[in-house]
Structures are given as structure tokens and as C-alpha cells.
Write a structure and sequence with these properties.
The chain is of the alpha/beta class. It starts with 5 loop residues before the first strand and ends in a 5-residue tail after the last strand. About 30% of the residues are buried.
Length: about 240
């Protein structure tokens, strides 16, 4: 019998936490609810392999969800994190992704969409772990950069660079498909674990950040190219 998936819900509004727990239990998941960040971090420290996904509120007592997310990422680059919050501004979403979140869902939310995102994250990260186990790509070099995908070490022009989990996932996908034009729909499905038809500019924003990190002139990229009306292409060694 397959081991039951364990989801940690970090939400200080008890009625909402119980509602989320009830619906996740109905889907067959094991669920733990906690009302603050330090308790969640203690659980993850004591049993780092026991949690398969974190549902995280941002407005928590004492320690913000952003800080919790960053702390989780400092310990575990692979654990999927779904932010669930009443904060809806673009800068809040950006900060959430920069802290290391995989997905961001605003309250009030549609239950079916929430459950679909949970399922997608679990499916994608399970598949990604299997692919990583058999992947030949452990590290790469291009331009002035050296990347180790196992240790998440990134060196650009001799200096270490800190990248988020999503940035590393996107970079790895580009490296694994070097030279091929990749549609935005494919990136949403394979990197974000989202339906390809969703209306979001997230890939554009993240590619701009990759250019800022790796391109000598981000305004005239040589490695991360936009192919008009088609998608994006990564070139390790431009002509």
C-alpha cells in the first residue's frame, strides 16, 4: 500500500484551517494544522521527510509567512509550498515567489482550484524527484556561470549567487532542453505545475530575472532568448 501523502497547513484562522483540513482529509491526504511559523519549522526540523507539501498563510502571528517560507527554503529546496493568503497585490506575489513559494493563491479561493493546485504540485514534484534521480544533468557551465543542481550552488563571474527554488527549476528545465523553443504553456505545466492555459506573466518575470543574473547585458540577451509568438530558447554557447 502506498504511503499516505502528508500536508502541513500553517494557518492561524482556526475555522479556515479546519475547513481546509476537512476537505484535504476527504481527498485522502494526511493533514496537520498549525497556527504559527515557529511550530511549523519545529515540525519540519524534527521530521524533515514526513511532510510532502506545505500550505502557508502569510499573515501569521509573530513570524510572517514570508520568513517561514524563506526558512523552509534554506533547509529544503525541494519541498513544495503553496501560499494561501488575503494579500493580492502584485508585489506580494512577487515577494512570495522570491521567498521560495511554488504557487500563490489568493483568499477567498475556489475549493476546486485549491485542490487542483495541491494535486498538481504533488504530482509534479513526485515526477520531478523521479526524473532527478535518473537525470544525467548534475551541473552545467555557460558564459561566466557554473551551476550545480545537486547542491544548488551557483557561481557567476567567480561570485556566489543565491537563487530561489523556482528560478533553479526553470534554469534546469532550460538546460535540459537546450536549443529547443519552449512555449510558455509548456513552462507553466512543467515548471510551475499550472494549467498551460492560465493567464499569467510569471514566465516572463522569471526569465527577466535569469537574464539579470546570467547575461552580461540583460537588455541584449545571448543565452535566454525570446522567440516572438513562439516561446523561449536557451543557448549555452551563442555563435
Amino acid at each position: 500500500m502506498a504511503e499516505q501523502v502528508h500536508i502541513l497547513v500553517v494557518e492561524d484562522e482556526q475555522h479556515l484551517a479546519l475547513g481546509i483540513k476537512y476537505n484535504l482529509l476527504a481527498e485522502g491526504y494526511q493533514v496537520t494544522t498549525l497556527g504559527d511559523g515557529p511550530s511549523a519549522l519545529r515540525l519540519l526540523e524534527e521530521s524533515p521527510q514526513s511532510v510532502d507539501l506545505v500550505v502557508l498563510d502569510l499573515m501569521l502571528p509573530g513570524m510572517s509567512g514570508y520568513a517561514v517560507c524563506e526558512e523552509i527554503r534554506a533547509r529544503d529546496m525541494e519541498l513544495p509550498i503553496l501560499i494561501l493568503t488575503a494579500r493580492t497585490l502584485t508585489e506580494d506575489r512577487t515577494r512570495g515567489f522570491e521567498a521560495g513559494a511554488n504557487q500563490y493563491l489568493a483568499k477567498p479561493f475556489d475549493l476546486d482550484e485549491f485542490l487542483a493546485r495541491v494535486k498538481n504540485l504533488l504530482t509534479y514534484h513526485g515526477r520531478r524527484k523521479r526524473q532527478a534521480a535518473g537525470s544525467r544533468i548534475r551541473d552545467c557551465q555557460f558564459g561566466n556561470a557554473r551551476i550545480n543542481f545537486e547542491t544548488f550552488e551557483v557561481i557567476v563571474s567567480g561570485q556566489p549567487v543565491r537563487m530561489t527554488q523556482l528560478e533553479m527549476s526553470l534554469l534546469r528545465y532550460f538546460v535540459e532542453h537546450e536549443g529547443r523553443v519552449i512555449p510558455r504553456r509548456e513552462l507553466l505545466e512543467k515548471v510551475w505545475g499550472l494549467p498551460g492555459g492560465i493567464n499569467t506573466r510569471a514566465p516572463d518575470q522569471f526569465i527577466r530575472r535569469l537574464r539579470k543574473i546570467f547575461e552580461s547585458d540583460p537588455a541584449v540577451p545571448r543565452h535566454f532568448l525570446t522567440i516572438r509568438d513562439a516561446g523561449y530558447r536557451f543557448v549555452a554557447k551563442p555563435e
